[in-house]
Design brief:
The complex is a heterodimer of chains A (118) and B (106).
Chain A lengths: L2 E5 L2 E3 L5 E8 L8 E6 L5 E7 L6 E3 L7 E6 L4 E6 L8 E7 L13 E5 L2
Parallel strand pairs in A: 2-10
Antiparallel strand pairs in A: 1-3, 3-8, 4-5, 4-9, 5-6, 7-8, 9-10
Chain B lengths: L8 E4 L5 E6 L8 E6 L6 E4 L13 E6 L2 E6 L8 E9 L2 E4 L3 E5 L1
Parallel strand pairs in B: 1-9
Antiparallel strand pairs in B: 2-6, 3-4, 3-7, 5-6, 7-8, 7-9
The chains are: A mainly beta (118), B mainly beta (106).
Chain lengths: 118, 106
């Protein structure tokens, strides 16, 4: 059974940093692209970033490009999202999701809440 | 940037057919997916590659995609289908979500 478990969310001040983690199990992590998707309170889904199986092959939404960095450690079956220069509008539940592309996101984590506020 | 447009809300009576649309430029040339999200829960993929259902998704969920519009159809809608629904497409290495549609089963 595929399991994705996010952690690292919390309260951070504007301009601060936070690193999210997503521990994966139940599949061959190194063989799958991984993504981050977020949802602001009461709002819709917004894609944030994805990373292909090979380190270095990434893409980002314009709203986070230059501030967020996605990475992965295939030896630890873990996906990361380093978030810098955080803004109030980054407040959201952050989900990790398996794969990317035309087949959609079949597997999602339960999400971790990031609140950016002073 | 590519955009997908959904109606904010759709209402349907139990047992009737609900249709939720998703519009985007030449969307029919791309693959569309649909997600169901109930309050406080993670999204669930209900349709992928326009009209395929993942294992465990009831047959009453179906999809189509042509021209500029993708459509999610729920036949024989049940009270448990009340949720937010999001379309999603893959365009030039970018993932795009629609704004979401709240389905109310009256």
């Amino acid at each position: 059974e595929v399991q994705l478990l996010e952690s690292g969310g919390g309260l951070v001040q504007p301009g601060g940093s936070l690193r999210l983690s997503c521990a994966a199990s139940g599949f061959t992590f190194s063989s799958h692209a991984m993504s981050w998707v977020r949802q602001a309170p009461g709002k819709g889904l917004e894609w944030v970033s994805f990373i292909w199986t090979s380190v270095g092959s990434t893409n980002y939404a314009e709203s986070v490009r230059g501030r967020f960095t996605i990475s992965r450690d295939n030896s630890k079956n873990t996906l990361y999202l380093q978030m810098n220069s955080l803004r109030a509008e980054d407040t959201a539940v952050y989900y990790c999701a398996k794969d990317v592309g035309s087949s959609g996101y079949l597997n999602w984590g339960q999400g971790t809440l990031v609140t950016v506020s002073s | 940037s590519y955009e997908l447009t959904q109606p904010p809300s759709v209402s349907v009576s139990p047992g009737q057919t609900a249709s939720i649309t998703c519009s985007g430029d030449k969307l029919g040339d791309k693959y569309a997916c649909w997600y169901q999200q109930k309050s406080g829960q993670s999204p669930v993929l209900v349709i992928y590659q326009d009209n395929k259902r993942p294992s465990g998704i009831p047959e009453r969920f179906s999809g189509s995609n042509s021209g500029n519009t993708a459509t999610l159809t729920i036949s024989g809608t049940q009270a448990m289908d009340e949720a937010d629904y999001y379309c999603q497409a893959w365009d030039s290495s970018i993932v795009v979500f629609g704004g979401g549609t709240k389905l109310t089963v009256l």
